[in-house]
Write a structure and sequence with these properties.
heterodimer; A: globular; B: Nitrile Hydratase, Chain A; 4 strands
């Protein structure tokens, strides 16, 4: 499947700008999103190609405008819902509980 | 909600909130174990990284038989040093020479040899490098401060989920007699991607 992720040869995407002494993760949520993705992958409900497809199905404008671990998070969420591990409603209500201080 | 003594988490970004909600739900359902998540994070943050690849390179620089095995069957030779595991199952090692320089990219996403290099840096996963490495490799390398002579052939390798590459950089001049451990210190992450060279000895 081609799409926004199929970037080889595109022009105009800016300088590379490597970061000196870059840390492995840039925020705590990246650590957790990374580990949850690996741990859920280990259940075997989907494979690596399915994970990639889930990330690549994002709206192209969203894909280009979000960071790498945001792609992972979005893909994970899609897979969790598609495979029945969680529902969108459960996620929404858990977020409200966290915001309300209940969790 | 009123009357509770928890601190409000309204300072969370939508992304932070989503991750917290997922971890909380999946933990509650017994699908993930926060302690196991901590171990995964600790492993990839502190244990698996480019020092592994540097040891592979230093071994190849000092042991011609190992180098031969490494170029013939990268996965097996890398496994000899104990580096195996996810996202490194099928490895090909690309030898840089005075006339050929190899550069590795993953145009589609972020495929990278985790067991020998750890998790990829942000720039490797981001649009500018992924888009341009295949059409302007010399321009890309120049952004890393690497300018090669015009007569050096540049080969660009596009990784896939199934096949991942490690560049075997050239051994720097003036390193005769150095130990494998000392040589490994000269091997940078970027020299194993192809966006840099091995360091010169001090």
């Amino acid at each position: 499947m081609n799409g926004a992720h199929d970037m080889g040869g595109m022009h105009g995407l800016g300088p590379i700008d490597p970061e000196e002494n870059e840390p492995v993760f840039h925020a705590e949520w990246e650590r957790r999103a990374f580990a949850i993705t690996l741990a859920m992958g280990a259940h075997g409900a989907w494979n690596l190609d399915m994970s990639r497809l889930a990330r690549e199905k994002s709206d192209p404008a969203v894909y280009l405008g979000t960071s790498y671990y945001e792609h992972w998070l979005h893909g994970l969420e899609q897979l969790l819902i598609e495979h029945g591990f969680v529902t969108a409603e459960e996620i929404e209500s858990r977020e409200q509980e966290i915001l309300g201080g209940a969790k | 909600m009123t009357g509770h003594d928890h601190q409000h988490d309204s300072s969370l970004s939508p992304t932070e909130l989503r991750v917290k909600a997922l971890e909380s739900l999946l933990t509650e359902k017994g699908l993930v174990d926060p302690a196991a998540l901590d171990i995964l994070i600790e492993t990839y943050e502190n244990k698996v990284g480019p020092r592994n690849g540097a040891r592979v390179v230093a071994r190849a620089w000092t042991d011609p038989d190992y180098k031969k095995r490494l170029l013939e069957d990268g996965s097996s030779a890398i496994a000899e040093l104990g580096y195996t595991g996810r996202q490194g199952e099928d490895m090909v090692v690309l030898e840089n020479t005075p006339s050929v320089h190899n550069l590795v990219v993953c145009t589609l996403c972020s495929c990278y040899p985790w067991p020998v290099l750890g998790l990829p840096p942000v720039w490797y996963k981001a649009a500018p490098y992924r888009s341009r490495a295949v059409i302007d490799p010399r321009g890309v390398m120049a952004e890393f401060g690497l300018v090669l002579d015009d007569d050096v052939e540049v080969r660009v390798w596009d990784s896939t989920a199934e096949l991942r590459y490690l560049v075997l950089p050239e051994r720097p001049a003036g390193t005769d007699g150095m130990s494998e451990e000392a040589l490994a210190e000269l091997v940078t992450r970027d020299s194993m991607i192809g966006t840099g060279l091995a360091l010169q000895p001090k």
